């Protein structure tokens, strides 16, 4: 017996986890006006091709997320030249990955 992800289960899981990931930053705000005094950046990254490989151009192993974070730190902090700014931002960051639906097949 092997655990094999069902294509239908993966699609449903991708949609459900994407929706929850997008709702979470919105729902975590006390009120729409509270974002004006927020010091944190709420960021969601949704990747494609995770079932076949993270190292594709659209996968999580691509440099896209890291480059986006570097640009945000440089733009918002205007401190690109200071060493360790990005590393401190990464250290204070929270990363979560979601893939929860697997179906059981007899092979």
Automatic annotation (TrEMBL):
* Biological processes per GO annotation: proteolysis
Which reaction is the catalytic activity of this chain? Answer: Release of an N-terminal aspartate or glutamate from a peptide, with a preference for aspartate
Q: What Gene Ontology molecular function terms does this protein carry?
A: aminopeptidase activity; zinc ion binding
Bilayer-crossing regions:
none
EC annotation from Swiss-Prot or TrEMBL: 3.4.11.21
Q: Which domain of life is it from?
A: Eukaryota
Q: What Pfam families does the entry give? A: Peptidase_M18
- Using the UniProt record, name the top-level EC class of this enzyme in a single word: hydrolase
Identify the InterPro entries for this entry. Answer: Peptidase_M18 (IPR001948)
PANTHER family membership: ASPARTYL AMINOPEPTIDASE
For this entry, the protein name equals: aspartyl aminopeptidase
């Amino acid at each position: 017996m092997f655990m094999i992800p069902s294509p239908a289960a993966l699609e449903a899981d991708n949609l459900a986890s994407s929706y929850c990931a997008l709702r979470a930053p919105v729902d975590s705000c006390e009120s729409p006006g509270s974002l004006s005094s927020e010091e944190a950046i709420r960021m969601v990254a949704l990747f494609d091709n995770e079932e076949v490989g993270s190292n594709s151009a659209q996968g999580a192993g691509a440099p896209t997320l890291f480059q986006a974070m570097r640009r945000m730190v440089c733009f918002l902090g205007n401190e690109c030249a200071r060493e360790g700014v990005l590393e401190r931002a990464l250290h204070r960051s929270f990363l979560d990955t979601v893939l929860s639906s697997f179906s059981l097949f007899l092979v």
